[in-house]
Amino acid sequence: MNNRRYRDHLAKERSRKRVSFIFSAIVVLLMVGGIFAAMLYNPAQTEDRSYGDYEIGDKPVTGGGSVYVIELNSNEIELQHLPTFVTYVEMDESAAPLIANAQQLALVADANASLEDLSLIDYARLQLTLGLPTPIASGMSGENTYGLPVITCDLASPQMPVVLFTSVNDTPSIRVNGSCVIISGTGRGILAAKDRVLFERYGIMTNGVVTED
What we know:
The chain is built from five helices and 13 strands. The protein is of the alpha/beta class. It folds into two domains: 2-45; 50-210, 2-Layer Sandwich (Chitobiase, domain 2).
């Protein structure tokens, strides 16, 4: 009787171990399959972000998500777009050489912009200040409470072009009027225009065409 109970116990134990082994094997296969699927279908794993001498990476940000980053002017610059996603930003061909040949640039914010757009313009000006090798001056287009000088396009010259950010709810654009570069846009369009300026300045794009590696 005892022998029979012992044999029954061994049989149950072998069955339990067999089920446990099968379950563990299934879990491992699912994990490996999930990782393999992520490698196949996650574009970040295989996407080529090399543009001539430059390469775009990723950086996590506080609160989740990430931004694109690129090293320009010996600084890590944050981008919100890859080059192919800013081709819709309208840009005059004379804008990039005007910025590239400047001895100094004045980055000017629209004094009438909303607080939300002003914060985006300030962020864009910071990234341009870090990314461009040209000395930068900051100002506002009119009287303001920020203690910044009033700078208008009337003060622009080939040696010191004025880059004026205007808050306009329209397709983002970068236009040239004399020696004044007028960036028009609102919300995320401001950041798209900022990225387009940097891409054109460093030859990652030329007149809207992305440089092939």
